[in-house]
Amino acid sequence: MTSGTVTTVSSNGTYSFTKPNREVITLLAGLGVEGDVHAGVTVKHRSRVAQDPTRPNLRQVHLIHAELFDEVAGAGFEVAPGDLGENVTTRGIDLLSLPTGTLLHLGAEAVVEVTGLRNPCAQIDGFRHGLLKQVLGRDENGEIVRKAGVMGVVRTGGEVRPGDPIRVELPPEPHRPLERV
Q1: Per-residue pLDDT averaged across 91-116, rounded?
Q2: Is the pTM of this model over 0.90?
């Protein structure tokens, strides 16, 4: 779990559920993905802006593990990188089990601090009917399980490309489990 690979990078300058794949994205410290509609110091997701547009943007970068696409394919859903609005698709790292504050070193320079879990919304069913149940469920204790990736903030900027290595740097203990952001 200490290393993985970037499989795809995506961004979109306009509000849209999906994000087109790119050859490279540039992460900007304290802002997010250059040219992406969700980049900024304060919240940019429409639901968050409606609540309080002055809150800090803890959702500058959205990362999803490619293994999720493999899992939902087994249930009959075809989902490709960028389809769920993520900026970085990874392979080889269990993103959902990382503690809050984990640093993900992407490529040669970029560093993203993991802030929490993406809270899957009804737009996922608009994309593929029934998919929301695949990425949002309950565990044996009845607790909600969110599987639609993690969110983060850019600590160090840099370019990120498919094929770039990812190195995981865990925060000091005690570790805090991820919560929705």
Answers
A1: 98
A2: yes
